[in-house]
Amino acid sequence: MQLRLEGVAQQAGSQAYLFPMTLAPVPGAVTILLGATQAGKTSLMRLMAGLDRPSAGRVLVDGHDVTGMPVRERNVSMVYQQFINYPSLKVFDNIASPLRLLRKAPAAEIAARVRELAGRLHIDHLLDRYPSELSGGQQQRVALARALAKEAPLMLLDEPLVNLDYKLREELREELAQLFAHGDATVVYATTEPGEALLLGGHTAVLDAGELLQYGPTPQVFHYPDSLRVARAFNDPPMNLVEGRLQGGRVTLAGDISVPVPGAGGHDGPVTVGVRASALRLAGEPGAVAVPGRVALAELSGSDTFVHADTPVGNLVAQFAGVLDLALGEPVSLHLLPEQIYLFDADGRRIHAPRRPGGLAADVPGGAAAAAGAGA
């Protein structure tokens, strides 16, 4: 199924929810809508589903204009943040309902499919219960199973795991990634979490304040953000951003810290330097530049330690594997490798990115990703 949104926008009175954008999710693959709350993800999904009509633009399915066609006339399955189940049906019958109503499958096939999906979503022991007897997370898994059972050519998932506990959310992300990889549906999955986008893979569309900023293969968008806005949206923790001046292939930061940037010539002037938290080191490596500072905060998250340090260039956040015992106010030296930094010009456009092993060049232009985002 080829879904294409051409110049769609959504506005109510003077309030713009979506600015004009064109987006064509890759058929049979996963497209992630990544953005903070109120970025426009749900508004865009409602246009895809036929729940709303765009204020401008067209919605095409396999080349046919379906703009304004109601959702009941489209073969779409959708899972919301808040679970929706049939309260009078047991879990088994909730999951089986699309198989019976739409596909009219034989009873044995229905039972096998229901138990397969229930097992994958860890609710096979709940098949004889009613939704009112389940926790919120269990009900959400029932809604997911029913959507998967429908096997619609277009599946829309609006932050479907947000109400689940951390451990189960991690497990189901992996299960969903496998289910999507072996399915034929075009899947659109909305999330606020960059880590979820990276795990699910596919393609990612980065949204911010109703604008489509970039669309392309998820690893490419992550490693080569076209702009500061994309870099901010597609990092957790946020990318460290500090002001500097590029001159003759070197960036000068506050505190007279100078960093050589191979391949960044021809862009002299003020720049914003971006460094991922995971790219900073406590111990120096050959060619690394030291940035002195003091520990402002050290926090544990899972098996990693996040160190916030006050430095001459500003507050920096570094991510280290394992548990580190660092006292507040303790002197610390963070080391960055020149080949790991990003550069953005005064207009926020990326002008330099780290070279990825076996990947694109460090100075890959943003235009390619921008064209993909426009559905060109």
CATH architectural group of the largest domain: 3-Layer(aba) Sandwich
- Total E-strand runs: 20
Share in β-strands: 25-35%
**Total number of domains:** 2
The CATH C-level name of the largest domain is: Alpha Beta
Mean pLDDT across every amino acid position: 89
Q: Number of helix segments?
A: 9
Q: In CATH terms, what is the fold-level topology of the largest domain? A: Rossmann fold
Helical proportion? 10-25%
Structural class, by secondary structure, is alpha+beta
Spatial order of the strands forming the largest sheet: 6-7-8-3-9-10
What best-fitting shape do the alpha-carbon axes yield?
globular
CATH homologous superfamily descriptor of the largest domain: P-loop containing nucleotide triphosphate hydrolases
Whole-Å distance between the termini?
18 Å
Major pleated sheet: 6 strands, mixed
* Topology order in helix (H) and strand (E) letters: EEEHEEEHHHEHEHEEHHEEEEEEEEEEH
Enzyme class: hydrolase
Protein name: ABC transporter ATP-binding protein
Domain ABC transporter: 3-234
EC number: 3.6.3.-
